[in-house]
């Protein structure tokens, strides 16, 4: 196939950037030219993989946003994210436009990169949207996981009404004023219900999960095709720390704990993790780049690691306890181990609901995430043969899939 140029624009944390880097690497291996544009915090990650990097926002900007506890609030979190997107609209749009005038490419962008959607409208730049989470293409036909708990039999009209309410009271107010002001400058008409009706590419949308995790629904965008979990985790450019290797070899399989790569307010999470390990008599591995929210002295049976590829660590663990990020969850599926989730905001409640439907784990609300409850949930999961068997089944499904090949084929297909 003739070489093409693909400009990837992921927006978010490591969980958002990792899958796209994996796909970009696969496209590069197939002979295409690839560029990744995202926040400067991820420059080293991208360039270590031999991929051209374009900076959209500084590392300081990223750290400022992630330092806000409100990012993890069920209501305020989405508004903060969309407010950040609003501030980036014009600079990213004009940076992409300048690059487009120098070199033609296909944009492969997170819908949060609304500048890409604008560039498609103004200059017909080929655009493929990539979604990491099915909740981003919410459906009234399948009860989504939300901060408020609703029964599975909730009528579709109620679900649609809740979606409408979220749009008009939370989401549109955070992004529509800035978006429509810029659209007016570009002589484009205003849009409403931005995330419900507008932000997807009208050409192609790729869902980066398998059908067994979330089946396409009648009210999803018509152009959606699923590729599977990309599962890139820096393996090959980041190694297992020797100290961790020695810890793993010195005893029984530990429990891995992480509140997410962008979480900087995780003290209560880690205190509960350490307490649960003590109550269960098990070893633990705590994963976070922000060690300031860890106790000064950890017990001998618990170790802290800044980062390690999950594909190297999780197959040697007994269970995974985390925030409900979909990338972390996918790595747990690949390792074939039970998962316990403490969902906070964004896609996390929906991911938890899907995990529970699959029978591969359980969850605890943040207010209930205390050492005794964490220990009790883990003990139940680790002692449940049905859960363990289901985890092995999902691991087999992951191992026989070819998500990167599928994603590349979808990107290469004519728009």
Which key terms come to mind for this protein?
7-stranded parallel beta sheet, 415 residues, alpha/beta
Structure characterization notes:
- By secondary structure, the chain is of the alpha/beta class.
- It is built from 15 helices and 13 strands.
- The strands form two sheets. A seven-stranded parallel β-sheet has the order 3-2-1-4-5-6-7, sandwiched between helices. A six-stranded parallel β-sheet has the order 10-9-8-11-12-13, with helices on both faces.
- Helix 1 packs across helix 15, helix 4 packs across helix 6 and helix 9 packs across helix 13.
- The protein starts with a strand and ends with a helix.
- The mean pLDDT is 92.
Give a concise summary.
This protein is α/β, with parallel strands linked by helices.
Helix content: 40-55%
User: What share of the residues does DSSP label as strand, in percent?
Assistant: 5-15%
C-alpha termini separation = 15 Å
* Helix and strand element order: EHEHEHHEHEHHEEHEHEEHEHEHEHHH
**Global structural class:** alpha/beta
| Beta strands, count | 13
Mean pLDDT: 92
Topology of this protein?
Elements: E1 5-9, H1 14-29, E2 33-38, H2 43-48, E3 52-55, H3 59-66, H4 76-102, E4 106-109, H5 114-123, E5 127-131, H6 156-185, H7 194-198, E6 204-207, E7 224-226, H8 242-249, E8 255-258, H9 267-280, E9 284-287, E10 302-305, H10 310-313, E11 319-322, H11 326-335, E12 339-341, H12 348-358, E13 361-363, H13 371-382, H14 385-399, H15 403-412
Parallel strand pairs: 1-2, 1-4, 2-3, 4-5, 5-6, 6-7, 8-9, 8-11, 9-10, 11-12, 12-13
Helix pairs in contact: 1-15, 4-5, 4-6, 9-13
């Amino acid at each position: 196939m003739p070489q093409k140029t693909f400009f990837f624009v992921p927006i978010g944390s490591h969980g958002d950037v990792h899958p796209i880097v994996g796909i970009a690497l696969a496209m590069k291996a197939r002979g295409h030219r690839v560029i990744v544009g995202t926040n400067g915090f991820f420059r080293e990650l991208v360039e270590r993989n031999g991929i051209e990097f374009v900076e959209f926002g500084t590392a300081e900007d990223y750290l400022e946003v992630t330092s806000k506890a409100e990012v993890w609030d069920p209501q305020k979190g989405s508004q903060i994210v969309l407010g950040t997107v609003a501030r980036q609209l014009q600079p990213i749009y004009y940076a992409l436009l300048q690059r487009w005038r120098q070199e033609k490419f296909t944009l492969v962008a997170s819908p949060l990169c609304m500048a890409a959607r604008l560039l498609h409208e103004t200059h017909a730049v080929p655009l493929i949207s990539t979604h990491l989470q099915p909740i981003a293409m919410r459906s009234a036909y399948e009860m989504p996981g939300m901060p408020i708990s609703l029964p599975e039999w909730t009528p579709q009209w109620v679900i649609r009404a809740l979606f409408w309410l979220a749009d008009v009271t939370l989401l549109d107010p955070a992004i529509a004023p800035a978006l429509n002001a810029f659209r007016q400058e570009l002589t484009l008409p205003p849009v409403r219900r931005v995330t419900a009706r507008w932000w997807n590419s009208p050409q192609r949308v790729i869902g980066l999960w398998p059908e067994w995790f979330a089946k396409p629904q009648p009210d999803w965008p018509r152009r959606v095709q699923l590729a599977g979990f990309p599962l890139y985790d820096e393996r090959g450019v980041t190694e297992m720390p020797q100290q961790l290797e020695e810890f793993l070899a010195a005893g029984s399989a530990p429990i891995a704990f992480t509140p997410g790569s962008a979480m900087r307010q995780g003290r209560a999470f880690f205190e509960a993790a350490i307490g649960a390990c003590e109550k269960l008599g098990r070893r633990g591995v705590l994963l976070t780049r922000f060690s300031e929210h860890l106790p000064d002295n950890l017990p001998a049976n618990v170790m802290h690691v800044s980062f390690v590829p999950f594909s190297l660590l999780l197959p040697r663990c007994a269970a995974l306890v985390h925030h409900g990020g979909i990338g972390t969850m996918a790595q747990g599926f690949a390792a074939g181990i039970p998962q316990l989730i403490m969902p906070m905001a964004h896609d996390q409640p929906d991911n938890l609901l899907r995990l529970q439907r699959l029978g591969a784990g359980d969850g605890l609300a943040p207010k209930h995430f205390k050492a005794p409850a964490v220990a009790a949930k883990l003990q139940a999961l680790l002692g449940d043969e049905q859960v363990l068997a289901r985890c092995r089944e999902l691991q087999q499904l992951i191992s026989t899939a070819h998500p990167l090949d599928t994603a590349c084929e979808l990107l290469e297909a004519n728009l």
